[in-house]
Specification:
It is a single chain. 38% of the residues lie in helices and 21% in strands. It has helices at residues 8-24, 27-33, 49-55, 67-80, 96-105, 119-125, 135-147, 174-190; strands at 40-43, 60-64, 85-88, 109-113, 159-169, 195-204, 227-238. The protein has a seven-stranded mixed β-sheet with strand order 3-2-1-4-5-7-6, with helices on both faces. The relative contact order is 0.16. It is globular and about 45 Å long. It has a single domain, classed as Vaccinia Virus protein VP39 (Rossmann fold), CATH 3.40.50.150. Helix 1 runs parallel beside helix 4 (67-80) and helix 6 (119-125) packs across helix 7. By secondary structure, the protein is of the alpha/beta class. The structure holds S-adenosylmethionine (SAM). S-adenosylmethionine binds at residues 15, 19, 44-46, 49-50, 63-66, 69, 90-92, 113-117, 121.
Length: 242
């Protein structure tokens, strides 16, 4: 498939289709079962399908910087008859008013599923000295770092839930994926911030029928062989008070 540089609008159109594909496979339903039914701050609502699953049993405050996706999300919530508040804002530049709204919401959890954006955003928030294939991964990591800052990780936050897509080589066992994910995220993100991973789950993901243009970063540890798509659900809980 030829890679095309998506802008805000085309990204919203592609993600609208991709998220329907994820919803049709039950992936949002499976992810939302992994977390408690408590007030949740959703980072990146996309077209609102993830939001509607979350909001069916919880209060949701979502943040997204793409106005096209915010419109799709609000329309999707109305169509599904569920309510959630969506703030149109950039996580890298939240105003005092937006930070105060998050604080007043008193989130118990933060959800950040499939975080990413079009290349204009990615280029703005990552170093251009990185190869173009490495920047989306760095963008995701920069957002993950923001999740643990005081601005988002209020003292009320007890858990953080991430969902990432991965490619799994046949010879790698589910146990190995789970242990490698725990080791990586505890070391780089959670342990130094008073959180610890309590559960990692690997969920099947059928990519047939999806035409979303994912960019795969180079992985020096990857063994040769064809990689099967999976979704990794990562739940971390607070182990030290803020
Ligand atoms: C790949 S979509 C995933 C959406 C949703 N979580 C889902 O699972 O369907 C990523 C979302 O994060 C949003 N996003 C990316 N960077 C952001 C930022 N800096 N501030 C706010 N939202 C952002 C994008 O606009 C997009 O809606």
């Amino acid at each position: 498939m030829q890679l095309v540089r998506m802008n805000k609008k085309t990204y919203s159109e592609f993600w609208g289709k991709e998220s329907k594909h994820l919803a049709d496979q039950g992936i949002y339903a499976a992810l939302s079962k992994e977390i408690p039914d408590e007030n949740v701050l959703e980072i990146g609502c996309g077209s609102g399908l993830s939001t509607s699953y979350l909001a069916s049993t919880r209060s949701v405050l979502a943040i997204d910087n793409n106005e096209h996706l915010v419109s799709l999300a609000n329309a999707s919530l109305v169509a599904k008859g569920v309510a959630a508040r969506i703030i149109h804002a950039d996580l890298f530049a939240l105003s005092e008013k937006e930070k105060n709204e998050i604080q007043a919401f008193s989130p118990k959890g933060i959800v950040c599923w499939f975080i990413g954006s079009h290349l204009d955003d990615v280029d703005r928030r990552t170093s251009l000295s990185l190869a173009i294939t490495e920047r989306p991964k760095k963008y995701r990591e920069n957002i993950e770092d923001l999740l643990l800052t005081e601005m988002l990780c209020q003292p009320t936050v007890e858990w953080i839930h991430l969902a990432n897509r991965v490619g799994v080589i046949e010879s790698v066992s589910e146990h190995d994926i789970i242990e490698a994910t725990k080791d990586d995220y505890n070391t780089h993100l959670f342990s130094s911030n008073g959180f610890e991973i309590t559960r990692v789950k690997v969920i099947d993901w059928e990519r047939n029928g999806s035409n979303f243009m994912y960019v795969n970063a180079h992985n020096p540890n990857l063994m040769p062989g064809s990689a099967a798509p999976r979704v990794v659900s990562i739940l971390a809980k607070r182990i030290r008070s803020a």
